[in-house]
Amino acid sequence: MFKNFKKIAGAMGLVAAVVGAPVLAQETTTLRFASAFSPMSANNRISVPAFIEAVEKASEGTLKIEHYPGGSLGKSPVQQLSMVENGITDIAEVVTAYTPGRFPELSVFELPFLAESNVEAGLAAYSLYEQGLLSDFDDLMLVGIIMTGPYALSSTDPIADLDDLSGKRLRVAGPIQTQMASLLGATPVGNVPAPQIAENISRGLLDGAMMAPGNLYNFRIADAAKHHMWDLKLGSVAVIFPMRRDTYEKLPPKAKAAFDTYSGEWFTRVLGEGLDTQQEESKAKIRADEEQTVYEWSDEQVAEARALLQPVVDEWDKPNQDGVNLYEEAIKALEAVRAAN
């Protein structure tokens, strides 16, 4: 009987020891967030760090995100998507214009005179993603999106009217910008990554560029092209922040919940607000610089240019092979965003 008591007491002591033992800390998952662009851009300086801070805090120690701006994981903007798909990084800043044929529906936002700001364009684009109207996302999760723009014109020579654009070699990104430049009388030049625009202008290989005013200093374009015209809203170019779905699925539950809260609409809004602020600051800086000239076109001049660009819109304002008119859907999404804000 005494022996049995000792066994029971020993077993109870073992249980007490296990129950009383401190719970081991949950393992932390580390993700890499890459960007080929400057650490001083609004995205890398403000928006991405805000997202990382929010997600890490909400994950309660189960997630750490390492930020690699400035091309420290891969300098080529063209390679960022493949870096995600090949596991070199987990999330990246991807300019969709550098991957022709991928995410084709997002090109609808490159149409002229559609969106007025980065916030509304980004939220409208994310709405199309949530509705399942964007292809190529079967294996990718859209962490956030920006539609950087609206694009405008910067040149080494005056841009007082349409005649000033005749024959000018303008850097463009993608087929829609190529078509718009041609319709405006300019000569489109593609395959020039944004970080190389200023150098190509300085060497006389380009006369100017279609570029969002907010990026004129990030890419040093304002140092090389000092004539600007912002009255033509020449569309917005998609920049997505994708992550592989299998990477997301492997996250600890609390890390997943953090992503569910702060990816998507929250991150997209933060990105858009950062770029809209950067855009206004860049415009103000250019206007205050005596070496820079900003041209303002009359309503008649804008209407003339808009009529020239209408064929680009007409190509999209019809049902696609799935019976969806993406132009109409984009307008509906933009109107919904404007009504909600």
TrEMBL record:
User: Which GO terms are recorded in the biological process aspect for this UniProt protein?
Assistant: transmembrane transport
Protein name stated in the entry: TRAP-type C4-dicarboxylate transport system, substrate-binding protein
Q: Does the keyword Cell membrane apply?
A: no
Show the InterPro entries listed in the entry: DctP_fam, TRAP_DctP_sf
Q: Which Pfam families does the protein's record reference?
A: DctP
Q: Which organism is it from?
A: Salinihabitans flavidus
**Signal peptide span:** 1-25
Principal cellular location given in the protein's record: periplasm
Question: Any idea where this protein resides?
Answer: Periplasm
Q: Where are the transmembrane segments?
A: none
Q: Which domain of life is it from?
A: Bacteria
